[in-house]
C-alpha cells in the first residue's frame, strides 16, 4: 500500500503569489495531499497580483488552515509530512523561521519542519538583498533549509510567464523528492 505524500504549502505576502497557486495546481494533478497556510499579507497579495480570490486558492488545497490557528495539525511534529515549501517567502517570514520566534501558523509550521529534520524549501522573493538578508539565508541553510529563489531557467526557452512559473513549481517539488514532469531537466549542451 502506497501512502499519500503530504506537503505543506505556505504563501506569504511577498510578490509572486502565482508561484504558490501553480504549486497547488501541480500538487492536485499529482494527487498529493496539500496543507495550505496563507499569511494575512499573502491574502492581500493574491487579490492584488492574480485573478484568483483567496477562496479559490484555498479550494485548491486538500486542507486549508487559518494562519492564526496555532493548534492546527501542521503545528505539530507528530503530523507526518514530506516537507514544506514557502512560495513566495517574504523577508519577514524567512526571518521568523530563522530565529524560531514565530507569530503565525505559517512560520510555526516551517519551524516544526526544520526541527523534525524534514525538507523546508524557502522561495525567497526579494531583491536586492542586504547583508542581513544574506546572513539570515545562510543561517537557515545551516539549519537544513533549502533556499530556492524562483529564478527563471532560460535554458528551457520559456515562451510566457506561465512557463517560468510552471518550471519553478516542478523544480520546487523535485527539491522535496516529488517526481513530476513540470520542470524540464538540463540535458547538456546540444541536448
From TrEMBL:
Catalysed reaction(s) here are: dimethylallyl phosphate + FMNH2 = prenylated FMNH2 + phosphate
Keyword Flavoprotein among record annotations: yes
Enzyme class, spelled out: transferase
Where in the numbering of this chain does the Flavoprotein domain appear?
A: 5-167
Q: Which UniProt keywords apply?
A: Flavoprotein, FMN, Prenyltransferase, Transferase
Protein name in UniProt: Flavin prenyltransferase UbiX
Family under the similarity heading: Belongs to the UbiX/PAD1 family.
Role this protein plays:
Flavin prenyltransferase that catalyzes the synthesis of the prenylated FMN cofactor (prenyl-FMN) for 4-hydroxy-3-polyprenylbenzoic acid decarboxylase UbiD. The prenyltransferase is metal-independent and links a dimethylallyl moiety from dimethylallyl monophosphate (DMAP) to the flavin N5 and C6 atoms of FMN.
EC id: 2.5.1.129
| Residues that hold dimethylallyl phosphate according to the record | 155
Which gene is the coding source of this polypeptide chain?
ubiX
Binding residues for FMN, per the UniProt record?
13-15, 39, 90-93, 125
